[in-house]
């Protein structure tokens, strides 16, 4: 199996693999900047790190937005309506949603820049 991983996640991934498979041999094939994502290797994204940065309410706000067509073009719903569904003020809902979106963007944009 081949994994393409970020430098900061390498040690944790190796430790996780060794905890699951005792006599595994791990070989680093290449250390280089990634120029393109056109690779035969799977890309490992530490989603647990992303999940740590999104609160339960932020995740709920994202889910409500997605399920109600907020991200459709054109939008199918207003923030006010989504806030009412969560029984919170529109501004509070918007804050939850924007903070969650920011966490996602902070996580995914560096990955997209690899290509």
Task: Report on the architecture of this protein.
There is one protein chain. It contains 5 helices and no strands. It is mainly alpha-helical and 115 residues long. It has 2 domains: 1-44, no CATH class; 46-115. The longest helix has 23 residues, at 90-112. The relative contact order is 0.14.
Taking pLDDT < 50 over at least 5 consecutive residues as the criterion, the unreliable ranges are none
Helix content: 40-55%
Can you give the mean pLDDT?
81
Strand content: under 5%
Blueprint of the fold:
Blueprint lengths: L9 H11 L26 H6 L3 H12 L11 H8 L3 H23 L3
Brief overview:
This protein has 115 residues and is an all-alpha fold. It has helices at residues 10-20, 47-52, 56-67, 79-86, 90-112.
What keyword list fits this structure?
5 helices; mainly alpha; elongated; 52% helix; 115 residues; 2 domains
